[in-house]
Each structure stands twice: as structure tokens, then as C-alpha cells.
Specification:
The chain is α+β, with helices and mostly antiparallel strands. Helices cover 21% and strands 21% of the residues. Helix 1 runs antiparallel to helix 2. The chain is globular and about 45 Å long. The chain binds the ligand Nc1nc2c(c(=O)[nH]1)N[C@H]1C(S)=C(S)[C@@H](COP(=O)(O)O)O[C@H]1N2 and molybdenum atom (MO). The site of the ligand Nc1nc2c(c(=O)[nH]1)N[C@H]1C(S)=C(S)[C@@H](COP(=O)(O)O)O[C@H]1N2 has 16 residues, from loops.
């Protein structure tokens, strides 16, 4: 079965060559593994997705970011067919299927609250604010799987500076698009919608916090949060809110979806922390999609640059 898929993959012309090299490596690994070694793994997670790569539009990436990891990029098909996007279903393969017809254009993002220059931006306006960078980040889901993705965007700080935050602004509240009509699966999600998230203003201003328009050199696929999302590589994946429509600067810590759904399991900060277990599972290790053995999870997902944001804080309490 895997051999047949390898043949199909070789024929594709849409994806950049370096991606294919990565993919061949993955397949070589996959083919070398016996059925016995696979037992006990989640086959769904390891299986090569059946769907064809659907290319978005190409983005003009002006520069590669110094923040990039040199670790192997996770194959595009894994990243785009193993998603959490509860508006489009709770299954990992649901978003790729159910978000296919999601309308992401025209799209605007309203930025306001405690700012001197509130403004509603079209996605095109947003993309004009700074040159697009490619940033290859590790991404660690709270569910203990991880991926390495070449995202495209620029620091959220660029946008925040544009609207001129007032001195009273201490936090940033984010909101996702929500439309029952386009997202009928959301009612089975078990969490409130619209999906909301939040950061302290100094976290939001940290250069690593990425306002993201694309991945793998192209616009974001719907299932990954088109047309614009956040990517916060030192935090558990659920903080990286998708399909953004509102950003509001506020003076108090804003409510966040997973914290509202289950406050004992999901805190406001949700920094990746291998020393603080989730009440129902360990956070010490993670499995990179497309790989077979688990690796150790790093404090702040390896992004030590953010440590000073939390100096003096008890990260067990502020989980
Ligand atoms: N609006 C919205 N944003 C969301 C989610 C969601 O369900 N809805 N899931 C989060 C979780 S749990 C993760 S791990 C990441 C997954 O991003 P990816 O699918 O691009 O890998 O999106 C986050 N952003
Ligand atoms: Mo996640």
C-alpha cells in the first residue's frame, strides 16, 4: 500500500522539490519498518494521507528568518491532514475534508480596543505591513504530537505597533471566525465558539509571535487556519488561533476557549513545559508526525528566548 502511494507522490508537480526529498526520506523510513514495530502506534497518525496535495497560491517570501530551526520539516501532507480545528470537526482528518469549501475571501481583521489607531484590515492590507518571512518553527500540540512547519508571515508586533497600543493595554484578545452555516460540525466540538485566545501584551510583542499567512511557500490551506492565523511556537498548539477576525487590546486577562472549557486542564499561559504534566497525561515526550519514536519535549519547546517573559513566575501555578 505504501509503495503504491510512493509512486503516486513521485508524479506530483505542485510541491517544491525539497519537500519531496523530505517525503522520500519519510517513505524510506516507513517502508523499512515491519508490521510488528507498528503495533501499538496510532496507525491513523502514521499513515500516509490519501488526499492529493492541494496547492494554494504562491507567496512572495522576501527573507528566511533567523528564528528558523534546521530540523527536518514535517511533510506537507502530514501537516495538512492531521489538524485540530474544532469548527470543522473533532477528528484529526475532519478539517482537511470539512473545510474544503470554507470561504476565506474577502476577509477582514478588526483591530481595536485600547489603541490610538483602531482599524479594520483586509488580508491584503495586512500582508502589506511588512515583508513576508519564512520561519521554520517547531509546533507542539498539548496532545503530545509535534510538527516542524515552514510558516510564512511576520511578527505580530508589526501589526500591534501599527494600531498604537495605549498605556492601559496589558493583554491582547484574539477571536476566530465563526459561522454555524459554514461550520455545522462545530456543534459537536464540546467547546464554546467563536474560538478565543489571549496573550499578555509583552508576549504578543515578542518577535517570535508570528502573524501567519502561509506555509510551505503558499497561502494557508483552509484546515490550517486560512487566511490568517497566529503561530506561537513556545506555547501549546491551541494558543495558535486560526482564521482570525478580531484582535482587541484590553486591560484585563481575556477568557480563552480551552480554559473556559476545562480550567483545571488548560491554563492561560500554556507554555510548553515538560516538567508540568497535563492532569491526564505526561508532557515529557512528544511524537513528531511521520516519525516512529518519541523525543523529549523541551522547555518552551526549545525557544529559550522567551524565558525572561516569565522570570519570577511560578510556572506550575501559571500553567
Ligand atoms: N479557531 C481554532 N484555532 C485553533 C484550533 C481550533 O480548534 N480552532 N485548534 C488549535 C490546536 S489544538 C492546534 S494543535 C493548532 C493546530 O494547527 P495546525 O492544524 O495548523 O497544525 O491549531 C490551534 N488553533
Ligand atoms: Mo493542539
Amino acid at each position: 500500500m505504501l509503495i503504491k502511494k510512493a509512486a503516486e507522490i513521485r508524479g506530483s508537480e505542485i510541491t517544491p522539490k525539497w519537500l519531496y526529498v523530505n517525503r522520500r526520506k519519510f517513505l524510506a523510513g516507513a517502508l523499512g519498518v515491519t508490521a510488528g514495530a507498528l503495533a501499538g502506534r496510532t496507525l491513523k497518525e502514521l499513515a500516509w494521507p490519501m488526499q492529493k496535495v492541494v496547492a494554494g497560491s504562491k507567496l512572495n517570501v522576501a527573507q528566511k528568518s533567523a528564528f528558523s530551526t534546521s530540523e527536518a520539516v514535517t511533510p506537507y501532507d502530514n501537516v495538512t491532514h492531521y489538524n485540530n480545528f474544532y469548527e470543522f470537526g473533532v477528528g484529526k482528518e475532519d478539517p482537511a475534508e470539512k473545510a474544503k469549501n470554507f470561504r476565506t475571501s474577502p476577509w477582514s481583521v478588526k483591530v481595536g480596543g485600547l489603541v490610538d489607531k483602531p482599524r479594520t484590515f483586509s488580508v491584503e492590507d495586512l500582508m502589506q505591513l511588512a515583508p513576508l518571512e519564512e520561519r521554520i518553527y517547531r509546533h507542539r500540540c498539548v496532545e503530545a504530537w509535534s510538527i516542524v512547519v515552514p510558516w510564512v508571515g511576520f511578527s505580530l508586533s508589526v501589526l500591534l505597533k501599527e494600531v498604537a497600543p495605549q498605556a492601559k493595554a496589558k493583554f491582547v484578545a484574539f477571536e476566530s471566525f465563526y459561522d454555524r452555516g459554514q461550520m455545522p460540525e462545530a456543534r459537536y466540538g464540546g467547546i464554546p465558539f467563536p474560538y478565543v485566545e489571549g496573550l499578555r501584551l509583552d508576549e504578543a510583542m515578542h518577535p517570535l509571535a508570528l502573524l501567519c499567512f502561509g506555509m510551505y511557500g503558499q497561502t494557508l490551506p483552509n484546515q490550517d487556519g486560512a487566511p490568517v492565523r497566529m503561530v506561537l511556537p513556545w506555547k501549546y498548539g491551541f494558543k495558535s488561533i486560526k482564521s482570525l477576525v478580531k484582535i482587541k487590546l484590553v486591560d484585563k486577562q481575556p477568557p480563552t476557549t480551552w480554559n473556559m472549557a476545562n480550567s483545571s486542564e488548560f491554563g492561560f499561559y500554556s507554555n510548553v513545559n515538560p516538567a508540568v504534566d497535563h492532569p491526564r497525561w505526561s508532557q515529557a515526550k512528544e511524537r513528531r508526525l511521520g516519525e516512529f519514536s518519541r523525543r523529549s519535549t523541551l522547555m518552551f519547546n526549545g525557544y529559550d528566548q522567551v524565558a525572561s517573559l516569565y522570570s519570577g513566575m511560578d510556572l506550575r501555578k501559571n500553567f
